[in-house]
Amino acid sequence: MSAPTPLWKTFLRFLAPLMLSNALQSLFGTISNVYLGHMIGVDALAAVSTFFPVFFFLFAFVMGLSTGATVLIGQAFGAGKHDRIKIVAGTTLAVGLLLSISVGLAGGLFSRQLMMALATPADILDQASRYARIMLLTMPLGFVFLLMTAMIRGIGDAVTPLLALALSTTIGLILTPILIRSDVGITSPAWAAAISNAVTLIVLAVYLLRKKHALAPDAALLRHLRLNRAVLGQILGIGLPSAVGMVVMAVAELVLLGLVNGYGSNATAAYGAVNQVMGYTQFTAMSISIAVSILGAQAIGSGDRARLDGIVRTGLAFNLVLTGGLVALIYLAPRAVLGIFITDGAVLDLAKGLLFIALWSSVPFGLATTFSGAMRAAGVALTPMLLSISAIVAIELPSAVILSRMIGLAGVWAAYPIVFCAMFLLQAGYYLLVWRKQAIRRLV
User: Fold this and answer.
1) What span, in angstroms and rounded, lies between the C-alpha atoms of 334 and 330?
2) 240 located within any domain
3) What angle do CA 81, 163, 168 make, to 5 degrees?
4) Which of 40, 101, 212, 239 could form a disulfide with 68 if both were Cys (CB 3.0 to 4.6 A apart)?
């Protein structure tokens, strides 16, 4: 009889493809922007950027929806209730399609008015409106793709989503420059994403059916492609707090950016570069949190509380090793890393100083999200979200305002370690002193 696989190996096998998948998602957007900027011009890049607030809002909702579905699917898989997996998946896809089709039709009709409402400059309004129209009309393909890959991870399969994203990204990166040269213009990335999503969804469906996968789009799944009120309530109960938390963090970033802009263009450029670098460390931490949530949901589904505790400890350890290790590497060569994004010497010196203030705070941020991810695995999302929002509103924003007046630009960046340490203490305190002492019941 073979020995059971150590938990850290199981965790790492799930985490590695998850991190690669998230990297591929970022890659397509980054390279598409490079194509637009170099092959069409700066105006095209600016026009695409004006759609970002709309995209982020919709992305936050679909991520919240997928979070709720993933937790329920993870619990059902852990409990061996494969019929419940189909019910959750069918309800999730039904609400995702209903929302995205509604958004697509409205966007197709009123994309210009939407871009005007976002105060898009007149010289790029036409380009921005065309891009927004295609992005919104093809939204159902993007929604279904994101939801399917997220739900597949819920049963512990992180490799299939990685392969699907690799195929989609490859198709998109090949098509975008071809479409640009074919005079499709600014809408090229939107069309490339739509075509790549459609092709990948077809390939994914065939693959899942051949494998007789738990989430294969077979007759059983199609029968459940409808709104189940009870299941939808559970999904939204977990997913909406996650979406609201994302939106609040984005709004807080806009407030901080407003403070930074008051110190001039060099400060703004430094802010952009430091945020790019911190994005990689936080991205690592958030991937670990997702892994804790999914593996934890499976443990709760199987009724194994001891395994859930082990998953939390493993997540904390991986944050210290991976997130902390990445932070340490960046601290060893900050100018080389920042030099990827900026070349101006004065801005580089400014950014280096700000990076030293804030970068280490990605570690307590990761530890905090590990605890919130474990609670989310049990369907508890509202309280962790309220704790995070309280820290942002009551600690981060006042700290940034007060410290910026006392010590200048560095005070804005000091707000990051202050709020992330506060989040860690709040989440860890609630988890250890309150939540961990309560009985955990699976939702499916």
Assistant:
1) 5
2) yes
3) 115
4) 239
